[in-house]
Amino acid sequence: MPLDDDRRLVELYDAHAPSLWRYVVHLTGDPVGADDIVQETLLRAWRSPRILAQEPESTRAWMFTVARNLVIDEARSARRRHEIGVAETPERVSSDGTDALFESLLVEEALAGLDYEHRAVIVHAYYGGRSIAEVARRLGIPEGTVKSRLHYGLRALRLALQEKGVTR
Fold first, then answer.
1. Are the CB atoms for 161 and 167 separated by under 8 Å?
2. Which of 78, 110, 123, 140 is 20 to 30 A distant from 20 in Cα terms?
3. Are 104 and 76 contained in the same domain?
4. Per the domain annotation, does 89 fall within a domain?
5. pLDDT tens readout for residues 42-101
C-alpha cells in the first residue's frame, strides 16, 4: 500500500472509527463484537480504491451502511443462531412427575367408570399395544365388535374426562 493510502486509512480511522463503534454497539449491545465490525468495515474501505479516493467526510454514509450490513449478516449467520451466550450453564429442568401421576389417576378413575367390555378393549388395545385382531383373539370376540367397543368406550372415556375437567 503506498504511503498516501496509509495516510488515507489513518484519516478514515480517526474520522469515523469512534462514531462507527458507538453505532455498532448501539445496534448489537456487544462492545467486543463492535471492534470486529469496525475493523472489517475499515478493511473493506481500504480494499476499495473508490472509497480511498474520496474525502473522509463523504465516506461516512458508506461506512455506516457497510457496518449495518455486517451486523445484519452476523445476526443471520448460522453460527449466531445456534450459539447461546450465558454466564453459567443453565440447569436442566426435569419434571417431578406430579402432573403425569395426577393425569394417570384421573384416567384410571375414568376407566373404572366404564363397563367391563369397553374397559377391557381399551386396556388391551391402548395400554397393551395390541392390534384389533389380537384383542379380538384374546377376548374371544369378533373384530367388528372390538372396533365398536373401542369407538363407544373411547367416547365414554372422553365424556368422563370432560366431566373431570381434563379435556375440552
1. yes
2. 78
3. no
4. no
5. 888 878 877 767 766 678 888 888 999 998 888 887 666 666 667 777 677 777 778 788
- Domain span including residue 121: 98-163
- Looking at 25, 53, 81, which one is the last position of a domain? 81
Q: Do 141 and 95 form a contact (C-beta atoms < 8 A)?
A: no
∠ Cα 116 138 151 (to 5°): 50
**Closest among 37, 51, 42 to 13, alpha carbons compared:** 42
Residue 115, C-alpha cell as written in the block = 363397563
Other CB atoms within a 10 A radius of the CB of residue 147 amount to 15
Model confidence, pTM:
0.45
3-state secondary structure of 94: coil
